[in-house]
Amino acid sequence: MTTTLYLIRHGLTEWNMTNRFQGSSDIPLCDKGREQAKRLSKRMENYPIHKVYASDLSRAYETAQYIAQPHNIAVKKVPELREIHFGIWEGLTQEEIVQLKEYNFTAWKQSPHDHPFPGEESFKNVQKRVMAGLEKITKNNQGENIAIVSHGGSLKLIIISLLNLPLSFYRSFWLGNTSLSIIELRKDRNVLSLLNDTSHLEDIMQ
């Protein structure tokens, strides 16, 4: 019995466009982000989706609503799927964060899994949180096709965890806004069948 996870990053926000750390700040979708979500919804309208879950932050929840609407499914909020909480870094650009003295942002950027940061302090802490949320979802929906709308950092940690990759792999891949990744939870192993696909956005540059 295979459980299929459709892992979706939320649509674009104003802070995405200005390269500001969003983290757990509740920044809504911008108009372009809503258009991205509509494109993904159209793409997925014939996918055999049974359940839709989302982070409780509005940019993820609204994206999830677009996905769920053609399937007449109510979106269920899962707070554990929130983005990494970056504390005082949130709302700042990388250039502004570098000027802060409390943390070595340059070292964190080069090796984020090895260095502390404000808020949740470590990737291990975030990993425990998001995987606890994912376990609740999969435990109650075995054998179903589940859409999960979350955030770039949280989704990367979910993918790393399900594929038994080291946390150092975090820096080795990217997830774009409204990207679709698919992981099949099979009886004997977990299989990544799609990663960071944004083909539905080909005619609207991100």
Describe this entry's structure for a reader.
It is a single chain. By secondary structure, this protein is of the alpha/beta class. The protein is built from 7 helices and 6 strands; from the N terminus they run βααβαβαααβαββ. It is 33% helix and 17% strand. A 6-stranded mixed beta sheet has the order 3-2-4-1-5-6. α2 packs parallel to α3 and α6 (123-139) packs across α7 (152-162).
Q: How would the global form be characterised?
A: globular
The name of the CATH topology is Rossmann fold
Order of helices and strands: EHHEHEHHHEHEE
Please tally the helical runs, counting DSSP H or I stretches of 4 or more residues: 7
**Corresponding CATH superfamily:** Phosphoglycerate mutase-like
* Helix percentage range: 25-40%
CATH class: Alpha Beta
Q: Which CATH architecture is right?
A: 3-Layer(aba) Sandwich
Short description:
With 206 residues, the protein is α/β, with parallel strands linked by helices. It has 7 helices and 6 strands. It has one domain: Phosphoglycerate mutase-like (Rossmann fold).
Characteristic terms for this protein:
six-stranded mixed β-sheet; 206 residues; 33% helix; globular; alpha/beta; Rossmann fold
Task: Summarize the SSE layout with pairings.
Elements: E1 3-9, H1 14-17, H2 31-44, E2 51-54, H3 58-68, E3 75-77, H4 94-98, H5 105-110, H6 123-139, E4 145-150, H7 152-162, E5 180-185, E6 190-197
Parallel strand pairs: 1-4, 2-3, 2-4
Antiparallel strand pairs: 1-5, 5-6
